[in-house]
Amino acid sequence: MRTLLILLFLLLSVRAVPVHAQHCGTPAILQQLQQRNPEMWQHIMAIQRQQFDGLRLADGVYTIPVVVHVVYNTAAQNIDDTRIYTQINVLNADYRRLNADTTETPGPFQAVAADVEFEFCLASLDPDGNPTTGIIRTYTDTTIWDLSFSENVKSTDLGGDDAWPASTYLNIWVCNLEDGILGYAVSPGAPPEVDGIVVDYKNFGLADISSAPYHMGRTTTHEVGHWLGLTHVWGDDGGSCAGDDGMDDTPLQAGPTYGCPDFPLTDECTTESPGVMYPNYMDYTDDLCMNLFTQDQKDRMRNVMATYRASLLTSTAGCNEIGPLPGDVAELMIYPVPNNGQFTVSIKNFAGTLNTLELSIYNSLGQHMGSVSLEAGNNVAQYIDLSGQAPGTYIVQVFNGTYFLTEPFILF
């Protein structure tokens, strides 16, 4: 088992903190994998290169059940449920492009920014069909998980916690990784006993300022991107401008971006504005400055889900609803604003006395344009198409059985 785990380390995609002189070792690791297990290397690389030409995808939102394995040695490492809930909320916001900082996406990149239409929930049933919170807590004698042996965190026999079936759950392990490593993921095609992602406890969910600049949950957003088949936005090509990440709508980029640069940022691979796409979740930018996936990245992730991870689309794991957290307030948000009639309405923390939420659209004269009934929840998103309507101001109103939320928007 130990030999297998060391070998499977070679599949990792690593997000690292530059201050400790760490970097993503994926190219070198893949070279080692090619030497040690050519068959596995060829399988992983074939998936990475696959173009999915002509594949027809189902429309709508894909829901992924999650189990979080908290493997801790100290009380600080045993993060509380609220931290885990905030991370699920961050994933849902980022993968639905409902994150509050979409307005920070530079104008030239707005046109390709995508709602990936993935949602995540904590599983409500364990592998035996029994109720679960989707959170598993395991004490370990291991004080720190050195990256060379960090796959041991996925084995109960080696001091960690065994994976739940990868065909049914996205496994996320939270533990104390070695300094400089924020997290990593295995690529599609990895064996099920190690399939999932690992994130350092300090960088999981909405953490305190001591974890800045990686304290807003974007490490998990980044690593789930790897788990869904994305590479780093610069393509892990050793600084060569001849290689890239395989996405037509992400500019060529020489290497990772650190910090929070000003727009535009150019390099030797993309020398003119708008420059490189440093706000992309698959770069190394500070959490505060990450805010988009692109349409091509969306297509790639949905293709991977529809093929190599298709069993998750019919998972029987169920979902636990995350209620409003302390300090949360009801929120109605429309994106984008202004828009051409095609937009998304996000409703948060507004589940009321009904099983449904009633969403209505009115024009500036108060005339009713239409309504839709939505299943009530604490994080609801609905796509609306008013294409063909006259430009002007319109109003979205949501009723939860007791109260109304109202928000105007401009259609151009």
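Above is the first protein from milestone M3; the second protein from the same milestone is given next.
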Amino acid sequence: MEIYPFVDPLTKKALTRKEKSEGKFLEGHVLFPIHEHYVDLVLPRNLSGELLSTQQHCDERASVYDDFLPLTFATHGIDELSERMSFISELSLTGSETVLEVGCGTGRDSSLIADMLVDDGSLHVLDLSPQMLEKTYQKLSEKKVKFTICAANAAHLPYPDNYFDAIYSFGGLGEFPDPIKFFQELERVSKVGARVVLGDESLPPWLRGSYFGNVLCETNKQFLAEIPWAAIPVCVRGFSLRYVINNCFYLISFFMGAGEPEADFDIPIPGIRGGTYRTRFEGKLEGVSADTKELVLRACQAKGVSIYELTNQVLREGVGKILSVSERPD
């Protein structure tokens, strides 16, 4: 197992390998155990509340997960393999990428991603559930691709900055208790231009309250979860959304940019108001009386200029005179 890409999930500093009488560890701000098939990098070290419940629930389901999950696709008359491949295809992999899968479960998607990578590529998978990871290991151990497996919290990713070319997560996002922190971590570990594909249960508005939707929600309330719009960072580019698996799940894809989008806010806007996007946003004043506004409009029509041009000129000249007078000695 290649362990050196890992960093301390809290400090983001490099980890040091340690061997003690009780086993092998990666040393950071605490000792992280290296198990036979995965590294335990979960934070906090003592789980509680929602995170602990999620881990326990997934551990309990791991042995039967692969038996029951196909029912999700069969219920809607959809071929699971072709549907999953359509999700993964949105990563636009060429084979040499460094790929991260968050919330890999038992590795049903991990196995498909691994088949798309070649010698230069590598796959890094994580999940909160050790039992799920054991199932993933069984699948990936049969592949030729380089891979790492770790137990980790999606809000504390144990990877270096600007490391991944592509990131994938399907079916786990609704279980993450802190989606804002998760997206912040995605931004941190992604290279600029990295492709990201994420999805989970969430009925679209037109199906909520329908018989179809009510039947599904009776068994799984997660279908009422909302897409985490508020958590998506401003750096995303090329964003797209589509509903999949009979419109019961969402799939969003985008690539990571750097900072906010750019636009030319200084192009003059034609018309009586004039100005630019920037001046209309940054140059707001307190307003004038209706009579004064009428006079301004008449003056603009007489001079053949916009409100922006006239008011900017008159205000600068008027204020300039006031300041000039105020600066004169008594």
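Note on the second protein: The mean pLDDT is 94.
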